[in-house]
Predict the 3D structure of the following.
Amino acid sequence: MKNADLLKIAASYGDPVYVYDSEKIISQFQRLTNAFSGVKNLKLNYAAKALSNLAILKLMNSLGSGLDTVSIQEVQLGLLAGFNPEDIIFTPNGVSLEEIEEASKLGVRINIDNLSILEQFGNKHPDIPVCVRINPHVMAGGNSKISVGHIDSKFGISIHQIPHLLRIVELTKMNVNGIHMHTGSDILDIDVFLYASEILFETAQNFKNLDFIDFGSGFKVPYKEGDIQTNVEELGKKLGDRFNEFCKAYGKELTLAFEPGKFLVSEAGHFLARVNVVKQTTSTVFASIDSGFNHLIRPMLYGATHQILNISNPEGRERYYSVVGYICETDTFASNKRINEISEGDILCFKNAGAYCFTMASNYNSRFRPPEVLWHEGKAILIRERETFDDLIKHQVDVKDLFAIKDIPKKEKVGIK
């Protein structure tokens, strides 16, 4: 997208605003598909939690993607977006048996990540096929908050509990048709990924009725020009060859599945916000924008980096700014970053704002969540309206006269004798 397109969107729909480029999403989907072209059966299940707007889900469905969901609500969104139930996999963590049963009634595939629920579900529903999530005890990911495959993680069934897992399967006579793992996000070293994959292949040999093996995702995308990223082409060649080799030994053509989220939508997203104040202190020049971590929490929560461009003055001389928000506590997007000279009223563009940005937005400080716009085939399409005050109080209950100010009887004046 060009700066002129983004500025026009900001002028038309107001700011702050999220903008998504469908062409980038499509190209990322095709890139990952092409990387694993050597595999006969490939299934990409888009991770809905990254960006769950219905328009984005419908775009993914049109590309032939499946859907990876982590809540019953995401399952319902997927069905509403037109996904076939069999193309949706439900991979929750720590949810109740009732929620898993509710999802299974909708016809989606079930992925269970703990022995307790596995045994309960197997006893009650032995005829419903399930996938099991394995914890390979591999530390991978950008930081501890998004590394989910290590030994202390709450996710998955430990590889050291495989004998217990097999006893449950044998006693309940349940059908395990898939094996799954996810080690974390922002994985750069494909050798670590391949190492974890070998653990999954070894585990898969214990199950005779598999239809698919799901290797999770977590591919790293570049956050700035020249940044490092996961070499999915190299991974596709190495893991694809190893997968084909495993299928031959297993005696069956299985499906290789992934659940990419950030890889597909991160780079497609742009977050636009206006500069309210340029404030110089004794040591810092602050550019304060009309947004905060209520709209984009990743820098404060994960220490994530988002490249910030001044699209109102792209040719201006570079100066150092700390870009901050309007939330009433420390609210910093970037510290002492080189950005083209900023004036009050300029529009700043935050790159890589497609994944885990709007979906983690809130109404903190009683602020409205921003609109979302899809840039598709050269046109801007509104896919979520900006919230209003009515939205803010929509589900609050008016307690009417519960705290009405009561009249207090006046005391008679006491005269002084």
Observations:
- The CA atoms of residues 140 and 184 lie 6 Å apart.
- Residues 232-250 form the longest helix (19 residues).
- The chain has twelve helices and 18 strands.
